């Protein structure tokens, strides 16, 4: 692990340990550099990462402060959310409107004649092919979805329609890249990757999108509360 990444991770740990930073303010760059035995440049790079993912904010002339709201999110960051949107580009592979199949009708609570949008895109991070995404959205919610929306940010498009995004239900699975995926991402067949399946919810409880993503550079950091009842239940089941 690079020094800047170790320092960013260590500072995250200290923040989530709720160690007492006076006035929720991080020490000055010079003090952090002395503490970690590195240059101020390395400290600056570590702080830039925390700034990008919204954990800290810089107040000119006052210092660097911890954002309390960010500490309430179980997903601290992943390899995509730590990037600004100007570092992410999308290339559309397929975009079509079609009748919803049975499973899709059930997921989106559609009727027989309803249609959905389906699109496939490659996502590039800092110019490097990183993800293949297949997503589906109900046309009844988004009748005017266009290619430019897909090549930009779907979340931004959803918000622009007046909807309020609530949460995501996400499943992870380790997989190996197949031949078609390797050709799209310019990588070796059989390379390990993460398969990420998302259900995306609005505030009213409706699912506004489902997506399946293959990511060859995926990393993430979570904070997970200890679930004592579940732990004890597993112990009981193990004794049977």
TrEMBL record:
The HTH gntR-type domain, residue ranges: 1-69
SUPFAM superfamilies assigned: Chorismate lyase-like, Winged helix' DNA-binding domain
A GO BP entry: negative regulation of DNA-templated transcription
InterPro entries, A to Z: Bact_HTH_transcr_reg, Chorismate_lyase_/UTRA_dom_sf, Tscrpt_reg_HTH_GntR, UTRA, WH-like_DNA-bd_sf, WH_DNA-bd_sf
Keyword list, A-Z: DNA-binding, Transcription, Transcription regulation
Gene3D superfamilies in the cross-refs: Chorismate lyase-like, Winged helix-like DNA-binding domain superfamily/Winged helix DNA-binding domain
MF annotations from Gene Ontology: DNA binding; DNA-binding transcription factor activity
PROSITE patterns: HTH_GNTR (PS50949)
CDD domains in the cross-refs: WHTH_GntR
Name of the protein in question: GntR family transcriptional regulator
Organism: Gilliamella apicola
